[in-house]
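Response to reviewer comment R2.3. The reviewers asked that we include at least one raw input/output pair. We reproduce the pair for SDR family oxidoreductase here without editing.
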Amino acid sequence: MFNLSGKVAIVTGASSGLGADAARAYAENGADVALFARRAEKLEQVAADIEKMGRKALVVPTDVTNEEAVKAGVQKVIDTFGKIDILLNNAGIAIGGGVEDISEKDWDTGMNINVKGPFFMSKYVVPHMRKAKYGKIVNIASVNAIIADKIPVLWRHNYNASKDAVRGLTMGMAASYAQDNITVNSVGPGLFESEMTEGTLFKNDDFLKGYNFNTPASRPGKRGELNGALLFFSSDASSYVTGQFITVDGGATIV
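Raw output as returned:
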């Protein structure tokens, strides 16, 4: 049920971290993968890993906040593979600070990458899925879509707002496209080590102690531990599951 053989997946933010891990997981389970991100050299490294598995990889250097670039990138995938079965909207950024501190420019940057990116990608992928009467869209939200931090150094009001917007977009699309055999779901990772967190949260010992104390698993997520949820939502194992939001957080949001 989790087999992705014959499927074509797009992964945004695929140059490093959770996105690169997800792209490799898709390939390990049989999919060919189109890799979207701004850093071409990083994408080439991920593509090499995928090709070693015997799968095809397409590098598509793209800024997901640029509509014309997204449109051209999606067309390149269609021209190369002929279809798109899976879209993982993973590209994201965490802008720190409260509403008193965030500049308008930073606010717009966070919203553009975290919300406009999935919007643009979906806008140009969904028509191909509707035509094929098949599609699996997975949006990466965050536990911070439903929980927040009271400690000032950890305030991320833009991140809270943008990731909850991703949940709302997921529900709206799910309701609209279920009749086309397209499922749309979102995943809320807890704390994982990535390019986004390793230089900030993972360097804050007080935060880590508090996180580990308050999280039932008593630790952050390990590389690869997000992949099970992504594969579930991206495969026919979730054929009757749509509009859902699942957290992968070691239980952090239940206590």
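The longest helix spans residues 104-132. The mean pLDDT is 96. Further pairs are available on request from the corresponding author.
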